[in-house]
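Sample entry as discussed:
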Amino acid sequence: MPAVGRAGRGKGAGEALVRACAGRAAAIEGVNRPPFSTRARSPAAHRIHERPGFVRTPERDWSPVPTAAPPTYALELRVLDW
C-alpha cells in the first residue's frame, strides 16, 4: 500500500510511486496482476490507479483494523502504458 505524506500530495509523487511499484512488480516473473490498496476516502488516490487502467478488486479488499477497509485495485501489467 504505497503512501505519500501531506507535503508530497498534489505534486505527482503518488503517481510516480504507483508507477515505480508497478514497474518493480513487472520485473518479477509470474507477477502479472499485482494488487494495490488505497485509502478508502481518497478520491485522488483512486484516480491515480484508475487512469492507467487499474480495476477495482473488491474481492481482495481487506481490513488492517476494524475501522478501515482500504479498497484494492489491480492492473494487468501487459496493458501498462505510461
Remarks:
- The chain has a mean pLDDT of 82.
- The chain is about 25% helix and 10% strand.
